[in-house]
Amino acid sequence: KTRPRRTPRDGAYGRLDDAGRLMKKNRTDRPTAVLRLLVVSEFVPGRISRFAYTEASGLFHVGLVECTTSGGVWRMAFSCFNRGFSILSGAAAPAPAPAPTPSSAIPPAFAASPPPRSQMEQIQHLYLDIAGLSLHVADLGKGESGVVVFLHGFPEIWYSWRYQMIAVAAAGFRAIAPDFRGYGLSQQPPEPEKNASWSDLISDLLAILDHLSVPKAFLVGKDFGALPAYHFALLHPDRVSGVITLGVPFVTESISTDTPPKGFYMSRWQEPGRAEADFGRFDVKTVVRNIYILFSSSELPVAGENQEIMDLVDPSTPLPLWFSEEDLSVYSTLYEKSGFSFPLQIPYRKMQQFANFADPKVEVPALLVMGEKDYVIKFPGMEDYIRSGMVKKYVPDLDIKFLPEGTHFVQEQLPEVVNQLIISFLNNHTS
């Protein structure tokens, strides 16, 4: 317990570069690859242990390693780490493991490394005066290949797109990620209970494009951000190169006649004052934490008769491995600023006011990325609506990609996979 902690900087495992990434050594003592992450799990003596690592290129590897050391868990972990690292260095060969596929390249248990601080610092933060409100827009890239606008969901903000912004900018596109009015660093209208409107999100998006002199853009929407993305494409098809949505397809009122279960979270949050009382028992950080945990599950959030939605989360439940305490702090800081007044109106309490089109048809190319462990797929009628192809009645030029291990926050959980799908779509539809 009193032994000084060793660090791997210039140690036997390799050297940490200035960004804190591990550079493995080969037999000539020269770094051969930069490792973003090395994870060894299942520390059981005499059993097969699993390891996984990512290179700086984003390539993901998994393998199996014999771990025969006896003793306590820390000794076993240390042995497995040594054994796993010797495999990475070429001193031993791992047992065969299934080759990753584009849809399942990264197991959900392994976190992606955060974007380098230097890349995050390149993101510009603009404040645009639109309809009497100051709207925050994150902006990155020169846009030689085109412009991509990212529209967040709940409980998200522009920061939810950090991995995607950096990736598409590196691919030659300009990445624009606004905070919707009432969210993040954007102002909210006075009395959101009266003045929150879906149509304002559409007009705000049009004004942002005009203000930034963007004649045409790809729209990427997540969660409820899919709704303004698709409706903008219906209203302004000449301004849209294509639409990508994550977790939510193009939806109409006719998806299903089934009703959600009693205690369904959306129904609860649509009741005036109920979510405010529920959330008010906790600080903002705990509320955001609980919602992220709930929405990362594959099950619908449904409260019992004597429960509120926040009661569904055991306080001891950890955050998803791909969502760090630092990430949580970013989100909670901005929700402390904005509060939940507007987010409870848009999307929840104003959902019935969302405009519906007679016989809508989206004419631009589109991509839907859906995690098979996304709780949204269990909405009444949702899975059949997608898998049967019924959604293509409204979006004829739609490509659908299912990610077997994907959850609702798939762009943060599996950023390399999602980035690859997005950039491939952008390149295929860039004239």
From TrEMBL:
Keywords annotated in UniProt: Hydrolase
A Pfam family that the UniProt record links to this protein:
Abhydrolase_1
**AB hydrolase-1 domain: from which residue to which, for each copy?**
147-378
Basic and acidic residues bias locations: 15-25
Q: Name one GO molecular function term.
A: hydrolase activity
Q: Which InterPro entries match?
A: AB_hydrolase_1, AB_hydrolase_fold, Epox_hydrolase-like
Instruction: Give the residue ranges for region: Disordered.
Output: 1-25
Provide the family line: Belongs to the AB hydrolase superfamily. Epoxide hydrolase family.
Q: What is this protein called?
A: Epoxide hydrolase 2
